[in-house]
Write a structure and sequence with these properties.
Length: 152
Amino acid sequence: MIQTENVAYDKLYLNDVMKVHRYLFFLMEKNTEYSTFSMIDNYMRYSHIRSRIDKGNWSALNKSGKQLYNDIPFERCLKAKHQDEYDDILLGWIADMYVLMQWRYNFTSSFLSVVLPASEMYKAYFPLHETSYDNACEKLYHRYFKDGEVNE
């Protein structure tokens, strides 16, 4: 069972944060100018709002998907060579995994995204999407992290 006593913020916010991030990732997928995975990675690493969510800031935890979208540093994002279309279920799962892992293990979003970028999360989807979120989080944690450190 996953340890949850050192979570990033109060559990009351968790479902809403998951929902808003699903919506945010869907908005990113609709942007044809930039690579979806590049937008996800840059949002997780450089968004001012996302870094405040990491600290449990109640105001940041209550932002809308459009407010989060407008906080993406697009100048850092890679241009799309051709826009891949991703299934909404896949993007929702990636969003949920990022939010759950950040919340449960109290990692910063930046650290989480550097160790487990969106392209790696995409690769992990196919074997893990059929299991529970708890199991998927635990498997990702053991595969990529060890006590907050990167597994080699």
